[in-house]
Design brief:
- This protein starts with a helix and ends in a 7-residue tail after the last helix.
- The protein is elongated, with a radius of gyration of 20 Å.
- Helix 3 packs antiparallel against helix 4, helix 7 packs parallel to helix 12 and helix 8 crosses helix 12.
- Strand 3 and strand 4 form a beta hairpin.
- It is mostly helical and 267 residues long.
- It has one domain.
- Helices cover 51% and strands 4% of the residues.
Length: 267
């Protein structure tokens, strides 16, 4: 979605989307290809907005395999398979957005897309909305798979995959990229939608409740799953929000606007 907005901003008199990407010394020294028309290519753009040394290192290591794919489905799948799904810096994406203000970022991007919604930019506008949905699907799938490791650790440790000969502990370790695929046990991994590798949390919950080992613990398990409620995962995954309801509502409103095409033009 942000990449589509960056492309839409190409003909703006005053750039507001990742305006310093092409001149950023760190990004250009990462050797992720050449500028295109004086602007960042997709790999450079990802690197520029990424937050954290690990995410930047991952992009630098795998970016040559991502390409500047224009097909949104392929692009989203490429990013997912390379595990490029970490945090980003709002202030690098949209000018003057504070570093941790994700709700304001989505509001600003939504207004920007609304302003650009004319016939000439129609394809890019549609792509931005489509990309928002596709990347969100991938993020949700990835988060649910990560939640699966927690569930397995707490309820079905025998089926937790190992890393370097030791059972992976998601509470103490960062998720390794080469963990084996889990097909058995209470929390199996599945492919959903367009091939996203994930965990069906509702099925996992049903499996755990039906297991004789947890007979009489339905309230405890229900409370456990309540803490995995979607809005909580959304909030934690999208940066350091304060937790105040207005912030959460602003974030969700911007996302819904992007997904449904109901973004309002900036006044």
């Amino acid at each position: 979605m942000f990449w589509q907005a960056y492309q839409m901003d190409a003909d703006s008199d005053e750039k507001v989307i990742a305006k310093s990407c092409a001149s950023d010394k760190e990004t250009q020294s990462a050797k992720l290809g050449s500028l295109v028309g004086g602007r960042c290519n997709f790999r450079q753009f990802l690197y520029y907005i990424a937050d954290g040394v690990d995410e930047k290192a991952n992009i630098k290591k795998t970016a040559s395999n991502i390409g500047d794919e224009t097909n949104i489905d392929k692009l989203a799948n490429n990013m997912y398979s390379k595990e490029i799904k970490g945090a980003y810096r709002p202030g690098q994406i949209y000018e003057n957005v504070p570093s941790k203000n994700v709700p304001l970022l989505f509001k600003s991007i939504c207004e920007f897309v609304g302003m650009k919604s004319n016939d000439e930019n129609n394809k890019l506008v549609l792509n931005a909305r489509f990309a928002r949905n596709r990347v969100q699907e991938g993020r949700v799938a990835g988060r649910n798979r990560d939640v699966g490791y927690l569930l397995r650790w707490d309820f079905d440790k025998d089926h937790q995959p190992s890393h370097n000969g030791v059972k992976f502990d998601p509470r103490k370790q960062k998720t390794p990229r080469d963990l084996e695929w889990v097909t058995e046990g209470l929390v199996p991994e599945v492919k959903q939608g367009r091939g996203w590798e994930t965990v069906d949390l509702q099925q996992a919950k049903a499996n755990i409740l039906a297991d004789p080992r947890y007979k009489g613990q339905s309230l405890k398990i229900a409370k456990y799953f309540t803490e995995l409620h979607e809005i909580e995962k959304e909030r934690k995954a999208d940066a350091d929000l304060t937790g105040h309801q207005p912030n959460i509502q602003a974030l969700m409103k911007g996302k819904r606007g992007m997904a449904t095409g109901s973004c309002e033009k900036k006044k």
